[in-house]
Specification:
- Two copies of one chain form a homodimer.
- Chain A is an alpha/beta fold.
- The first copy, chain A, has one domain: Ribonuclease Z/Hydroxyacylglutathione hydrolase-like (Metallo-beta-lactamase, Chain A, 4-Layer Sandwich), CATH 3.60.15.
- Helix content of chain A is about 20%, strand content about 30%.
- The first copy, chain A, contains seven helices and 14 strands.
- In chain A, the strands form two sheets. Chain A has a seven-stranded mixed β-sheet. A seven-stranded mixed β-sheet of chain A has the order 8-9-10-11-12-13-14.
- In chain A, a hairpin with an 8-residue loop joins strand 12 and strand 13.
- At the A-B interface, strand 1, strand 2, strand 3, strand 13 and strand 14 of A face strand 1, strand 2, strand 3, strand 13 and strand 14 of B.
Chain lengths: ~290, ~290
């Protein structure tokens, strides 16, 4: 009876139609303890309180982004597929509400291989959920997670990514494309290396005319922490200092170019603009517009 | 083809179901000039830039709020009725998307009589748009705008409100109810005087169990200006210093009670929480929740 409005938000980048789609939100208990690795608990607590958030439990939203070029429909990251957390399973319903059909997706471009980004490629029974899509991945990410010798060089908590990589990409064999830094996904859309969060983590630069969007993936998770304090890195970053350096480079570029950004773990609708602020960045969420 | 998601957002206050509905958004050109009356242009410009907004044009969103108690449906402010600005006409579509029918509204509670709050009571032909609703108004507001002798005591730009008051409430004759400060709209819902923006401007305090919401009307327009700098008042405040005093009293109460607030001109979804910050307040927008 009392339904929430559907979790999608639409905007344009030049003539491209972009839709950010909410998968859902999980909660991180005690985010002041062991989450940020290079800041003490009091500093993290203070940043959380300063943003009006709760130091007892921090929301972790999940958002994917769809770009419709007129010729192709391109999905950035596949989400959880509802297989990681019962509260994070909204992509099918929210895509449908937005008039987007997984069967019509031409390309799924992946930022990195963490399970909340690739598990939605396939069902629990491991059937391809994007039946006609080509899957585009950063070549460096593919190389890391498909090389057995990297297992001991990977944080223990993330070693499951190797098996999940085999599992989720398996059904797409023969329609995988590896992209190097700067390579084109489709006209006007290029991969931008942003390594650190994972060894091959990459963002995507989407441009049309004089407008641009950076699909940032996990260059930063919640902006109140990792943009405001851009030096911070977290327990889920494979290489924290490198993640921070990539973050500063990419968001600095977006700030200087006045480009729009969308972050996978930013609060829905997850897109807006950034400005340099001290050593970090201020995130300015988009003004909700009824017109696309 | 590329439709925006509907502009409504639902949340609960105890067992009450609350839906904030976007009417649309207009633009104020040159908000640094003549808008804030008691701050110089440079200070206003700095506040706008600091919030990541544009000093060339400031969005002015319009949001109404519906409370469903299980027994009654209560609408707070009627919006523009699409009669003030062609871009601000979304209440019918957004209410419909939210499953809300104007014909089922039992009470329309009005914060004040500015045209963007009452014009939506009636159509362009002045037919009642809420056919079965009782209309609840602050007694002090009614007294001001229905007393001819107040015309010369009212800022010239606002004198049209007298005629629009007669016009918009006319079709509801016999089902108007005047409320004094503290009086009950419905069980758990009371008027709270917050004079200044207009002579009888009032908020509404909506409570159930241990949760509460303040429907703030125009106690503050954009939070980046008038909550951050709570002493400021604007060209649309009939009595600026009184508006500022009421604002500080009401938002101070909401901050101390950790009550939710919703502001008519806050950026959609227009609700969240406030914390005292220096001499003003920090507004913390709600975290978007897919569950109601």
């Amino acid at each position: 009876m009392a339904e929430q409005s559907p979790g999608f938000y639409r905007y344009k980048v030049g003539s491209l139609v972009v839709t950010t789609v909410l998968d859902g939100s999980s909660a991180r208990a005690n985010p002041t303890q062991g989450f940020v690795l290079n800041a003490d608990s009091a500093a993290v607590r203070s940043a959380i309180l300063d943003a009006g958030l709760s130091p007892a439990s921090l929301d972790n939203p999940y958002n994917v982004t769809v770009v419709q070029t007129g010729r192709q429909t391109i999905l950035f990251d596949a989400g959880t597929g509802g297989q990681l957390n019962p509260a994070v399973n909204r992509i099918p319903a929210n895509m449908a509400a937005a008039g987007l059909d997984p069967a019509q997706v031409d390309i799924v471009a992946i930022t990195h291989f963490h399970p909340d980004h690739i598990s939605g490629l396939t069902s629990a029974a491991n059937a391809a959920l994007f039946p006609k899509a080509e899957i585009v991945v950063p070549a460096a990410e593919w190389a890391w997670w498909t090389t057995e010798g990297n297992v001991p060089r990977t944080p223990e908590a993330q070693r499951g990514v190797f098996a999940n990589t085999r599992r989720r990409f398996g059904p797409y064999a023969g329609r995988l494309r590896m992209l190097a830094d700067g390579a084109e996904v489709a006209p006007g859309i290029r991969l931008v290396a942003a390594h650190g969060h994972t060894p091959g983590h990459s963002a995507y630069h989407v441009t049309d005319g004089n407008q641009a969007l950076y699909v940032m993936g996990d260059c930063s998770s919640r902006p109140e922490l990792f943009l405001r304090y851009a030096d911070w890195y977290s327990v889920v970053d494979v290489d924290g200092p490198m993640a921070s350096a990539s973050r500063k480079r990419l968001f600095g570029r977006a700030a200087d170019e006045r480009a729009r950004v969308v972050g996978f773990h930013f609060p829905f609708p997850a897109n807006g603009y950034v400005a340099r602020d001290g050593g970090g960045f201020r995130f300015v969420p988009t003004e909700w517009s009824s017109a696309v």
